[in-house]
């Protein structure tokens, strides 16, 4: 079985920091820490099952098919597989305008 290595790019790390800050401010440090740990754990599960994701609907409509996504609750983790690496590009709150966020990052 092919082994993959997950790399979280700087923008996705920034997404995690912003989520952490938002949850800490609007709920609690404990809730933010719990969410952050769960999201990171979900990302690293891709090492064993990278193909389990699906093409985000917003990207499928544009013909871009190299990115996949998985979900943790209503958070969307956008990534791509390249050789033995999984690059996590975004960790987004699915309640936000995903089309706009992906346009700013991937479709530019």
Q: Please name the CATH architecture.
A: 2-Layer Sandwich
Let me know the largest β-sheet: 4 strands, mixed
Structural class: alpha+beta
Helix content: 40-55%
Number of strands: 4
- Run of helices and strands: EHHHEEEH
Number of separate helices: 4
Uncertain runs are none
Identify the CATH homologous superfamily.
RelE-like
**Strand arrangement, major sheet:** 1-4-3-2
Question: What is the approximate shape?
Answer: globular
Distance between the termini: 35 Å
What integer is the average pLDDT?
90
Question: Could you please say which CATH topology applies here?
Answer: YaeB-like fold
Number of domains: 1
What oligomeric state best describes the polypeptide chains here?
A: single chain
What is Rg?
14 Å
The CATH class designation is: Alpha Beta
| Beta-strand fraction estimate | 25-35%
Written description of the protein model:
The protein is an alpha+beta fold and 108 residues long. The protein has a single domain (5-105), classed as YaeB-like fold (2-Layer Sandwich), CATH 3.30.2310.20. The chain contains four helices and four strands, in the order E-H-H-H-E-E-E-H. It has helices spanning 10-26, 29-44, 57-60, 98-105, and strands spanning 5-8, 67-72, 75-82, 85-93. A hairpin with a 2-residue loop joins strand 2 and strand 3. The longest helix is centred in the N-terminal third of the chain and has 17 residues, at 10-26.
């Amino acid at each position: 079985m092919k082994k993959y290595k997950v790399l979280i790019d700087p923008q996705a790390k920034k997404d995690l920091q912003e989520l952490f800050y938002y949850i800490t401010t609007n709920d609690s440090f404990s809730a933010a820490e719990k969410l952050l740990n769960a999201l990171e754990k979900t990302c690293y599960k891709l090492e064993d099952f990278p193909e389990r994701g699906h093409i985000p609907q917003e990207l499928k409509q544009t013909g871009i098919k190299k990115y996949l996504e998985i979900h943790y609750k209503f958070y969307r983790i956008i990534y791509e597989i390249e050789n033995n690496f999984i690059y996590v590009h975004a960790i987004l709150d699915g309640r936000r305008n995903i089309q706009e966020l992906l346009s700013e990052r991937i479709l530019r």
